[in-house]
From TrEMBL:
Residues 1-11 have a biased composition (Polar residues). This is DUF559 domain-containing protein. It comes from the Bacteria. Residues 1-30 are annotated as: Disordered.
Length: 348
């Protein structure tokens, strides 16, 4: 097929790209890299000619071309950013053995919009789209592409054919660029209340991103953990009712008679000496003393003959029947044990 440049004699220019390049039904947005254009027989000079002001194409990012003159759609912007990020090589040679995830993915506010967060702005309103790449990728932010680097790339989720960072990582990247406390709180609350992820996963990601030293983020995280605990407690109530477990004493403190405080538990069956704790903590790396305190509490209760069952918010959400079986097994096993030490049970 012959491809020629426009002539200066008033003749209509011969189209520079074949019909399959322009009209590809079902093949996604019309965004291609220079390399992909060359595979279609379009050289760099021809592509540059087509991208001149007033031309039928445009270069929207370095090495990435949009094959129509109007503004790009949301989908085309997403694909342009991903193509731009994928077109630059890594600065470190590939290692032998199984390769970790290396492909770029959408993150930040754009990812939250794809995850259908009501608190995230619409894709077309975003001046920049965050794209997550390995830290070794030789790439810089430019145009509407903002490069975010990851020490370890997460496993992406596919949303309408677009690789998207999981919600905890997308939240961390979004919040790193936000200073409005109300916006941060709305995003975090929706993440947990909307069932996108657990509060502990968000806080763990924020700790990795070193966001927990920012006052407006810390306030939002405290509210997030309270929200996550309230949801987990509600799921525990539902679990007891739905699966026919005997009613426990809810939210109580345990003490030895005339002795020290043993700690609070979320549910307690005094006849069987079985306690349930919801593990809604998100331990930070520096909280070794706190983790040791929790471990000491559990060991102390078990020495007194009290069985402690730890349930995570995620398991209460995703596998309630399995968690009910764990609690039921602990209650049934109590019949084979020596009676536990007498403890005083007080409302918490």
């Amino acid at each position: 097929m012959n491809h020629t440049s426009p002539t200066s004699g008033g003749e209509s220019p011969t189209p520079l790209s074949p019909r399959p390049l322009h009209d590809r039904p079902g093949r996604g947005p019309r965004v291609l890299t220079g390399r992909q254009l060359r595979e279609h027989g379009i050289g760099a000079a021809e592509a540059a000619e087509r991208c001149r002001p007033g031309g039928p194409w445009q270069q929207v990012l370095p090495g990435v071309h949009l094959l129509h003159p109007g503004p790009p759609t949301s989908e085309e912007r997403l694909h342009a950013v991903l193509l731009y990020a994928a077109s630059r090589p890594s600065a470190v040679p590939a290692q032998t053995g199984p390769a970790p995830a290396q492909d770029p993915m959408i993150t930040g506010l754009a990812a939250l919009a794809l995850h259908r967060f009501a608190a995230a702005p619409p894709l077309l309103s975003l001046d920049r789209i965050d794209v997550l790449v390995p830290r070794t990728r030789r790439l810089r932010s430019t145009g509407f592409a903002r490069v975010v680097r990851a020490q370890v790339m997460p496993q992406p989720q596919q949303i309408t054919g677009v690789p998207v960072a999981p919600v905890p990582r997308a939240l961390a990247d979004a919040v790193s660029g936000l200073s409005d406390a109300c916006t941060v709180r709305r995003l975090l609350t929706e993440a947990v209340r909307g069932g996108h992820c657990e509060a502990t996963a968000v806080v763990r990601e924020f700790n990795e991103a070193r966001l927990l030293n920012l006052p407006h983020v810390v306030d939002a995280v405290h509210a997030l953990l309270a929200e996550g605990r309230a949801l987990a407690e509600g799921r525990l109530y539902d679990l007891v009712r739905r699966y026919g477990l005997p009613d426990p004493l809810w939210n109580v403190d345990l003490r030895l008679p005339g002795g020290p405080h043993l700690g609070g538990v979320d549910a307690y069956w005094p006849e069987q000496a079985v306690a349930v704790e919801i593990d809604a903590r998100a331990p930070r790396q520096e909280d070794e003393a706190l983790r040791a305190q929790y471990a000491h509490k559990r060991e102390h209760l078990e020495r007194l003959g009290i069985t402690v069952v730890r349930l995570s918010p995620r398991k209460l959400r995703d596998a309630p029947e399995q968690q009910a079986a764990v609690v039921r097994t602990a209650l049934m096993a109590a019949d084979d044990h020596e009676p536990g030490s007498y403890v005083v049970v007080l409302p918490r």
